Automatic annotation (TrEMBL):
Family: Belongs to the pseudouridine synthase RluA family.
Pfam family, one: S4
Described purpose of this protein according to its UniProt entry: Responsible for synthesis of pseudouridine from uracil.
GO molecular function: catalytic activity, acting on RNA; pseudouridine synthase activity; RNA binding
UniProt KW keywords: Isomerase, RNA-binding
Name the UniProt record assigns to this protein: Pseudouridine synthase
Reaction catalyzed: a uridine in RNA = a pseudouridine in RNA
List of catalytic residues: D140
Native source species: Nocardioides faecalis
Sequence ranges assigned to domain Pseudouridine synthase RsuA/RluA-like in this UniProt record: 91-244
EC number of this enzyme: 5.4.99.-
GO BP: enzyme-directed rRNA pseudouridine synthesis
Residues annotated as domain RNA-binding S4: 15-55
Length: 309
C-alpha cells in the first residue's frame, strides 16, 4: 500500500476530489474514483463520501493506493484438470481443460497453462514474450484438448517455424448445428476483428487469410460431428467459419448458436475439442502424434444428440 499525504494548494480551492487527486498524484480520474469508492481517501481525517466532493485550500488529503497486480505476471499454481500427455527434454504435451487460458493477458484473472507448468516445476523455453515464454500455439479459454509447449530454445525455434509454415497437423472435432452442405469441404475466407465487438471476430474483407477444411463424421437429427483440419491458425477460426456457414458450434452463443439447444445439451461453452496434434519432433525429426479424448461435458452432449435420432 502506497500512502500519500498532501495539503490542498490554493489553486485547487473548490475543485472536485477526483480532479484534485489526478493533479496532485498523477492518477486518472477513474482510478481516483475507484479509490474513493474503496474508502481509501480521507480529507482532514474524514472519509471522502464521493468523487464529486469539493475540497478547500489547506485541507489535508490522505490517500492509500493499493499496489496494482501485473496483469501479465505468471502466477505459479497447480491447475486441476491439466493432464501431462508427454514430457521429454524438448517438449511437454498437455491436455488442456476448458476454462484455462494458455498464458496471462489483460482482463484474464483465471488459471493459465504457463502458471500450472511453473507451479508443477517444469522449466520451459525462455524464448518469446515474458508472459508466454515457450508457447508455440494457443487454444481459446473455452476450447479443450491437446497442445504442445517448448521446453528448450531449439524446440521453440523449430516448432514456431513448423507452425508458421503450416507443417503441423492440427485436428479438431466440432459438433455443429444442422448439416453442412456439402458434407465435406473447405472454407477459405478472411477473418478480422468484428467492427461492433472487439471480443468477437468475423469473416470480412481485408481480414487475414484463413483456411479451414472439414469432413462430416456423423450426421444426426439436430447436429453434425465434424473433423476439422486447420491450414491457418487465426483466433476463433473454426467458430467464425462454422458460424459463417450458418452451422455454429453447438453451445457457442457468441457466434449464433441456439441457446435452447445448448441448454438441452448441458453446454456452457462451444462444442470444440483439439483431438490430435502431429509434427516432426524438434530433436530427432521423427513424426509424432498426440491425442486427447472428449471431456465429460462434450461426451455427454454428443450422446444426447445421438439419442435424439
Amino acid at each position: 500500500m502506497d500512502h500519500r499525504t498532501l495539503s490542498v494548494p490554493d489553486s485547487l480551492e473548490g475543485e472536485r476530489i477526483d480532479v484534485v487527486m489526478a493533479q496532485l498524484f498523477g492518477l486518472s480520474r477513474t482510478r481516483a474514483a475507484e479509490l474513493v469508492a474503496a474508502e481509501h481517501v480521507r480529507l482532514d481525517g474524514d472519509l471522502v463520501q464521493g468523487k464529486s466532493e469539493r475540497v478547500f485550500s489547506g485541507a489535508v488529503l490522505d490517500v492509500s493506493i493499493p499496489a496494482e497486480n501485473d496483469a501479465l505476471a505468471i502466477v505459479p499454481e497447480i491447475v486441476e484438470g491439466i493432464k501431462i500427455i508427454h514430457d521429454d527434454d524438448s517438449i511437454v504435451v498437455i491436455d488442456k481443460p476448458v476454462g484455462v487460458a494458455v498464458h496471462p493477458s489483460p482482463g484474464w484473472r483465471g488459471p493459465t497453462v504457463v502458471g500450472h507448468l511453473a507451479g508443477a516445476g517444469f522449466r520451459i523455453s525462455t524464448s518469446g514474450a515474458k508472459e508466454r515464454e515457450g508457447i508455440v500455439q494457443r487454444l481459446d479459454v473455452g476450447t479443450s484438448g491437446v497442445m504442445v509447449i517448448a521446453k528448450s530454445e531449439r524446440a521453440y525455434s523449430v516448432l514456431k517455424n513448423a507452425f508458421r509454415h503450416r507443417t503441423v497437423d492440427k485436428t479438431y472435432h466440432a459438433l455443429v448445428q444442422g448439416h453442412p452442405d456439402p458434407l465435406s469441404g473447405t472454407v477459405d475466407a478472411p477473418i478480422g476483428r468484428h467492427p461492433g465487438a472487439d471480443y468477437r471476430f468475423a469473416v470480412m474483407e481485408g481480414g487475414r487469410a484463413s483456411v479451414t477444411h472439414y469432413e462430416t463424421l456423423e450426421a444426426h437429427r439436430f447436429a453434425s460431428l465434424l473433423e476439422v483440419h486447420l491450414e491457418t491458425g487465426r483466433t476463433h477460426q473454426i467458430r467464425v467459419h462454422m458460424s459463417a456457414l450458418r452451422h455454429p458450434c453447438c453451445g457457442d452463443l457468441t457466434y449464433g448458436a441456439d441457446p435452447t439447444l445448448a441448454k438441452r445439451l448441458g453446454l456452457t461453452r462451444q462444442w470444440l475439442h483439439a483431438v490430435k496434434l502431429g509434427f516432426e519432433h524438434p530433436d530427432g525429426g521423427e513424426y509424432v502424434t498426440y491425442s486427447s479424448t472428449y471431456p465429460d461435458d462434450l461426451a455427454h452432449a454428443l450422446e444426447v444428440i445421438r439419442d435424439s435420432d
